[in-house]
Write a structure and sequence with these properties.
Number of helices: 6
CATH class of the largest domain: Alpha Beta
GO molecular function: methyltransferase activity
Number of strands: 14
Radius of gyration: 18 Å
Shape: globular
CATH superfamily of the largest domain: Vaccinia Virus protein VP39
CATH topology of the largest domain: Rossmann fold
Domain Methyltransferase: 41-132
Helix content: 10-25%
Pfam families: Methyltransf_25
Order of helices and strands: HHEHEHEEHEEEEEEEEHEE
Keywords: Methyltransferase, Transferase
Distance between the termini: 48 Å
Protein name: Methyltransferase domain-containing protein
Strand content: 25-35%
Number of domains: 2
């Protein structure tokens, strides 16, 4: 039976952990470059903790929030004492301000409703201390996939129980909304027997150069730098695969 759940259900989380158990070192170093001991740090959409855990291991004071209970269970297995909350980002109300907030892995692109995205940016701005920084990445239109009509196997991995976990997906890009639609079906097999399946309606908004900067200024960020790489090269067009933003009040 296929169940539509949040973006990261059981099978999606299992595959994510197999393929992305640790943060890429260049990306981790980028986000660490803004962190200081003694400062309050928040990672919304912290997932299974591939960034949060290394931050804690370096003695940094970091908290996390995520909607996916499945992802947070994986995080807690790695770091039982982690300060994390399962919450919708639109309902989360911290009692303190943060000196540094970051969202990794292009996850802001998951907010394909631009009005909702602006509301989230506005909320994050309110969580920052006066000198705080908000750092995040989005996918660009250079990530557009070729359209296809039929589901095909995109990834196949073995779990630690020796089950085969398969992702079947297809792609369609909506020009008007700049939304990459990539629905996926996760299937777990014991030999040839299908024992579990899960549907994920995966969508991302692909950004053009200058687009996010307008939204950030609209919600009240006055200092915005846009990079095209983890080496902090200034972005000059949208031919790069991601934009990285460093924002201040």
């Amino acid at each position: 039976m296929i169940e539509e759940k949040n973006y990261y259900g059981n099978l999606c989380t299992e595959m994510y952990e197999i393929l992305h158990a640790e943060a890429p070192q260049d990306e981790l170093n980028f986000y660490l470059s803004y962190a200081e001991k003694g400062k309050k740090i928040l990672e919304p959409l912290c997932g299974s903790g591939r960034f949060l855990v290394p931050f804690v291991e370096r003695g940094l004071d970091i908290s996390g929030i995520d909607l996916s209970n499945e992802m947070l269970q994986k995080l807690k297995q790695k770091l039982p004492e982690a300060k994390v909350v399962q919450a919708d980002i639109m309902k989360y109300s911290p009692r303190e301000k943060f000196d540094y907030i970051f969202i990794s892995s292009g996850s802001v692109s998951l907010f394909t409703d631009i009005d909702l995205c602006k509301q989230i940016l506005c909320r994050i701005k309110e969580w920052l201390s006066p000198m705080g920084k908000f750092v995040f990445a989005v996918d660009t239109i250079a990530n557009r996939c070729t359209d296809d009509n039929d589901y095909a196997i995109a990834v196949s991995v073995k779990t630690k129980e020796n089950f085969e976990l398969v992702l079947k997906s297809k792609n369609h890009y909506d020009e008007q909304s700049q939304t990459q639609l990539s629905p996926g079906i996760y299937e777990m097999y014991s030999d040839t027997e299908l024992i579990q399946s899960e549907f994920m309606d995966f969508q991302t908004h692909l950004y053009k150069y200058g687009e996010m900067e307008e939204y950030l200024k609209e919600v009240g960020f006055t200092q915005v730098k846009t990079y095209s790489s983890f080496d902090k090269e200034i972005a000059i067009n949208d031919r790069c695969e991601m934009f990285l933003f460093e924002c201040g009040l």
